[in-house]
Amino acid sequence: MPGNNVVERVRALVQTFLETDLVRLRIERDGGHVELRRRASSRLATAETAEPQTQGPPAENLDEIKSDLVGIFRFSRPAPVIGELLDADRELAYVEALGIRNPVRSLGSGRLVSVCCDDGQPVEYGQTLFEVARV
Amino acid sequence: MFKKVLIANRGEIALRINRACRELGVKTVAIFSEPDRESLHVRHANEAFCVGPGPAARSYLSIPNIISTALITHCDAVHPGYGFLAENARFAQICADHGLAFIGPPAEVIATMGDKATAKRVMREAKVETTPGTDILESVDKARRAARDLGYPVLLKATAGGGGKGMRVVAGPDQLERAFNSAQNEAEASFKDGRLYMEKLIVSPRHIEVQVLGDNFGSIVLLGERDCSVQKPSHQKLIEEAPAANLSDKARQSLLAMALRAAQAVHYSNAGTLEFLVSGDRVYFMEMNTRIQVEHPVTEMVYNIDLVKEQIRIAAGEPLGYTQADLKPRGHAIECRINAEDASNNFAPAAGTVTNVVFPGGPGIRVDTHIYSGATVPPYYDSLLAKIVAFGETREAAIARMERALRETVIEGVNTTVAQCLEVLATDAFIKGRYTIDFLPGLMRRDDAA
Question: What residues of chain A lie within 8 A of the CB of B64, using their CB?
Fold first, then answer.
């Protein structure tokens, strides 16, 4: 059955995703998409596949958080600070467009490495707003 | 006059609008999709904003991102160009609601003339002759009855249509159901509006259109006609010329009179084009395009007027400042559309990278283009690469100049329509100016058979 086929393919995708250090994986095809995001707890749940800590600090994956619309960039309060350890769903800022505040979230836990925009700055689609190290 | 205009388009028309703005001392904001980041229109504008990824639905048709760009860059007007949102009444209204002047007619005029069935009804009320036809047909059964009344052959058309999309010729009753369903599906996919109406098919007509300009004070002028009968089987135009060759005085007079009545009937303002089918001396209104046309340069050449600047001036509230009597055409102009297409494969679009480009020059030649050596042609958009326009004191001189210009043209890396245009120019039918909309499809069939 086609439905079972899709489930099997997603299951295989999740397994592959869990075997990597990826924080987020998005696959677009034929107008549809699948997106997998790693939450802090899921990393713990897969601890058995992680490298032992005795082998040194885990490698950092630098993740760019980009704007998906055009508007004015503003920090949320409290404003994020470089070096801050972020919760998985921390609201970092918002992009104001046509009077609507569109939140920008951390999309997973990590350490804030850089802030790429100034408060009040116009931003375009795809512009990098933050860089986060996923540890 | 406006201080800053957002250009809600891409390609050659975005550059064309940018040039008009610059010459008027108006600053510009370009929008672009991710694959268009290196486009010339982005480089030439004062500011540029990415509004989305490649697919037009998420970039050049993204009304929220476009309006947001206009507002955060403090634009006071939006020029839609052609295609994309140019004939979207909702977009024009949203611009107005946000205090942005839409460089085009008011939203209600776009809505009236953009709905082809409504437009025909309004034209009939204004005593403008239309092809015999129907209002919206809700079902195949209704279409079958209408076709029987009109008499085959008939033409099914999408009420939201344009560019030949959602249009089908139906020669007999056995073809009707299939044509109805495929036209409806195509219209739904292209315009999100699958409604169809039907017209009696005028066999082998010419496609001739009239350029109008109206200001916000009720003045309307006509800038003559353009013959756009050299069309691909998909009804997309390949070569246009102004004025139309071998058009009888009677046909020209009724064409111009009907165009004026039509524009007056809807209190038209800004630039627009009324399209007609001409068969002998009979003239039938087909549709109105409430925007600048791709082929506007041929009119500009013979009337020595900048239509895009006129659009901007009119939208800024300036009066026309001249009357019909002041407009005197001179000479003849021909435009060839150079598309990234494979003419040997039914004009299939050809995306890729343009590796080398040499455009023609010299007296009487104008090239409107956005491509350069190294430019990429994304697969997402219209395949138009360049418009080569030739002006001559006579039609013969314009043809000779165009032929010379096409032979100077080099575009490598993608297939183009240059050879096809040259082939058309060399035909007896084109040289004598005696061709109809069946001319190019017939020429292609002959090539296939050879």
Answer: 69, 97-98
User: At which of B158, B184, B200 does a domain end?
Assistant: B200
Is residue B122 domain-resident?
Answer: no
Which residues fall within 8 angstroms of residue B442, CB to CB, at 6 or more apart?
none
Residues B136 and B256 in one domain: no
Tens-place pLDDT, residues B46-63: 999 999 999 999 999 999
* Each residue's pLDDT tens digit, B324-369: 999 999 999 999 999 999 888 888 888 999 999 999 999 999 999 9
- What ipTM does the predicted assembly reach? 0.85
B94 by DSSP, 3-state: which? helix
Residues spanned by the domain of B176: 132-200
Own/partner contacts of B57-60, CB < 8 Å, gap of 24 or more, are B58/B33, B59/A125, B59/B31, B59/B32, B59/B33, B59/B34, B60/B8, B60/B9, B60/B10, B60/B31, B60/B33, B60/B84, B60/B85, B60/B381
pLDDT tier for residue A57 given thresholds of 50, 70 and 90: low
Say how far apart CA A60 and CA B210 lie, in whole Å: 64
When CB atoms are compared, the residue of B50, B64, B67 closest to A124 is B50
- Which residues in chain A touch residue B72, judged by CB atoms under 8 angstroms apart? 70-72, 122
B291 is an active site residue: yes
Q: Could you tell me if B104 lies within 8 Å of chain A, comparing CB atoms? A: no
Type of residue found at A110: G
Q: Is residue B125, in this structure, part of any structural domain at all? A: no
- Here the CATH number for the domain that contains residue B99 is 3.40.50.20
Residue B185 has pLDDT above 50, yes or no: yes
For position A40, what pLDDT does the model report? 38
- Residues B389, B247 share a domain: yes
Query: CB–CB of B170/B176 below 8 Å?
Result: yes
> How confident is the model at residue B183, as a pLDDT?
95
Residue-wise pLDDT for B297-315, tens only, equals: 999 999 999 999 999 999 9
Out of B83, B103, B123, a domain closes at: B103
Listed by start position, the domains of chain A span 1-54, 60-135
**Which one is catalytic: B16, B226, B252, B291?**
B291
Residues B193 and B240 in one domain: no
B283 with B362, same domain: the answer is yes
Distance CA B314, CA B104 (A): 9
Class of domain A60-135: mainly beta
DSSP SS3 for B62: coil
Chain A contact for B42 (CB, 8 A cutoff): no
Say if residue A45's pLDDT is above 60.
Answer: no
Counted residue by residue, chain A has a size of 135
Q: How big is the CA angle at B433 (ends B429 and B438), to the nearest 5 degrees? A: 55
